[in-house]
Design goal:
The protein is an alpha/beta fold. It is built from 18 helices and 17 strands. 40% of the residues lie in helices and 22% in strands. Strands 1, 2, 3, 4, 5, 14, 15, 16 and 17 form a 9-stranded mixed β-sheet that branches. Strands 6-7-8-9 form a 4-stranded parallel β-sheet. α15 crosses α16 and α15 packs across α17.
C-alpha cells in the first residue's frame, strides 16, 4: 500500500484549526492523518512518499451547480446580456447547432479539475454528455435534466422515459433528477418528479427564483417568459392556462412537495424573508452563482440575508455559457463583494464563504459525511492553491478575495488528477 504525504505552508479546513506548516497523509483513497508536518511525517513512516507544495492546502472544492456540457458555448458566457430573456435568446441561437456534447463536457470536467474542484452537481441535458464526470473521476452527482413535459405527454410515457434516461447515466458518481424549472415543466409533472425521486432514493436539483420573469410566470402566468413558452407551444401548462397560482416560486415548489432535505436549488435570487425561512424549515440549500447572474443581467443573490439568517448555501459556477470560468473561488470572491455591499460586516465572512465552497456544497449533494473537509477517515479529495501569504488568516483572505482560477494540485479519491507539472516534479520526494 502506497502512503503519500502532501505538505504545505498553510493547511485550511472548515471547522478545524488552521495549520502553519501542515501535512495530510493519504492511503487507500482516504485521509489517514492531518496535522503539523513534523508529527504527520513521523507517523507516516520512512517509506511514505512526500510531496511539498507552495501555497494553501484545502479540501477539494465542491461546485454545487454546473452544466459542463456547455463548455464550448463560452461565447455566450463572455458576452453581456440585458436580462434573462436576452441571454436565453443568445443561448438558444447556439444550442441547436450540431456539436460534440461529449467532448464539450469532457473539456469542462478537465477545467473543473484544474480549478481545484473534486466534486460537482452536474446537470446533464444531452445523453452524449452523461459520462464526463464518470470518465474524469470526479465525485458528486450527475443530475439528469427533465424539461418540456406537459401533463398530457407525461401521463403517456413520461416516467418510463425518465427512468430509462436516468438509468443510462454511468456510475459512479451517484445520479439524481433535475426538474429544470417551474416554467419548463407542467405542474403535475413537477409533483410527479418529486415523488419519483423519493421512490428511487435519489436527490433533486432545481433552478429556482433565478429571474423576475420567472416570478411573474408563477404568480400570474404573465410576462416575457410566459409569452415565450406560449409561443413555443406550451400554452397548455397549468400555470399558463390558469393564470398562475398567486404565490412565489419557493411556495409553489413547496406546495408540490419538491422542497425536501434531499433537494437543493440553484440561484435563489428572488426570495424574500418568508421564502428563506421556508427553505430553512425544509432543510433545502441553495447553490449561489453570482457571476452567472451578473453575465445574464440579473440582480445579485441576497448573500448577506442568507448568511445572517443561517440558510444553507453552497457555491456554483453554472456553465461557461453564462460564466467566464469554472473556478468556484472566483464566485466566492464575487459573493464576498456582494455580501459587503449588502451590509454584511461580520469578521466571519471569509470562513463562511470558504465553508460554502466546500462543506456547503458537500451538504447540498448529501456527501457531507466524508467530503469537503480534511479529517482522518474522510475521502482524500484535496487541492493546493497558490497564495503569497504565509499565515493562515492572510492565506484564507487571499483565497476568498482574489479567487485563484487554477490549483497547483487536485487530488480526487487519493489520485492526482491535476498538477502544475513544474511544481509537481520539483517537489516530489521521499520522507
Amino acid at each position: 500500500m502506497t502512503v503519500v504525504v502532501h505538505r504545505a505552508p498553510v493547511v485550511l479546513s472548515p471547522g478545524s484549526p488552521p495549520l502553519t506548516d501542515g501535512a495530510v497523509t493519504i492511503a487507500d483513497g482516504r485521509i489517514r492523518d492531518v496535522g503539523p508536518a513534523d508529527e504527520v511525517l513521523a507517523a507516516a513512516g520512512p517509506d511514505a512518499e512526500l510531496h511539498e507544495w507552495d501555497g494553501a492546502l484545502t479540501p477539494g472544492l465542491v461546485n454545487a451547480h454546473t452544466h459542463l456540457q456547455y463548455s464550448d458555448m463560452a461565447a455566450v458566457g463572455l458576452a453581456e446580456h440585458t436580462g434573462f430573456e436576452a441571454w436565453m435568446s443568445a443561448f438558444m441561437e447556439l444550442y441547436p447547432v450540431p456539436r460534440d456534447w461529449g467532448a464539450s463536457a469532457a473539456a469542462g470536467a478537465a477545467l473543473a479539475l484544474r480549478s481545484g474542484t473534486t466534486a460537482v452537481a452536474e446537470i446533464v441535458t444531452d445523453a452524449a454528455a452523461g459520462s464526463a464526470v464518470h470518465d474524469a473521476g470526479l465525485h458528486g452527482i450527475a443530475f439528469w435534466e427533465v424539461l418540456g413535459w406537459t401533463e398530457r405527454a407525461w401521463a403517456e410515457n413520461g416516467e418510463r422515459t425518465v427512468r430509462a434516461e436516468l438509468a443510462a447515466l454511468p456510475t459512479p458518481p451517484a445520479t439524481g433528477l433535475s426538474p429544470h424549472a417551474i416554467y419548463s415543466l407542467d405542474t403535475a409533472v413537477l409533483r410527479d418528479l418529486s415523488r419519483l425521486a423519493r421512490t428511487l432514493g435519489v436527490r433533486q436539483h432545481i433552478h429556482a427564483a433565478e429571474s423576475a420573469w420567472e416570478d411573474a410566470y408563477v404568480r400570474s402566468g404573465t410576462g416575457d417568459l410566459a409569452e415565450r413558452w406560449r409561443a413555443n407551444g406550451r400554452g397548455e401548462f397549468a400555470l399558463l392556462r390558469d393564470g398562475g397560482v398567486g404565490t412565489g416560486v419557493i411556495r409553489y415548489l413547496d406546495d408540490l412537495g419538491a422542497l425536501t432535505p434531499t433537494t437543493h436549488l440553484a440561484h435563489g435570487i428572488y426570495v424574500d424573508a418568508d421564502d428563506r425561512a421556508l427553505l430553512r424549515a425544509r432543510g433545502v440549500g441553495v447553490a449561489l452563482c453570482p457571476r452567472s447572474n451578473a453575465v445574464i443581467g440579473l440582480d445579485p443573490p441576497p448573500v448577506a440575508a442568507y448568511l445572517r439568517e443561517g440558510n444553507a448555501i453552497a457555491v456554483g459556477t453554472d456553465s461557461l455559457s453564462s460564466s467566464p470560468s469554472l473556478s468556484p473561488w472566483q464566485d466566492v470572491a464575487a459573493l464576498a463583494d456582494i455580501a459587503r455591499a449588502q451590509g454584511y460586516a461580520d469578521d466571519d465572512l471569509h470562513a463562511r464563504l470558504f465553508a460554502a465552497a466546500t462543506t456547503g456544497g458537500a451538504r447540498a449533494l448529501g456527501l457531507d459525511a466524508d467530503t469537503g473537509v480534511l479529517r482522518a477517515g474522510a475521502r482524500a479529495d484535496l487541492a493546493v492553491f497558490p497564495v503569497a501569504s504565509a499565515t493562515p488568516r492572510d492565506a484564507l483572505a487571499e483565497l476568498v478575495e482574489d479567487g485563484p482560477a487554477e490549483a497547483s494540485l487536485t487530488v480526487v479519491g487519493g489520485r492526482v488528477r491535476w498538477a502544475t507539472t513544474a511544481d509537481h516534479e520539483r517537489t516530489t520526494a521521499h520522507v
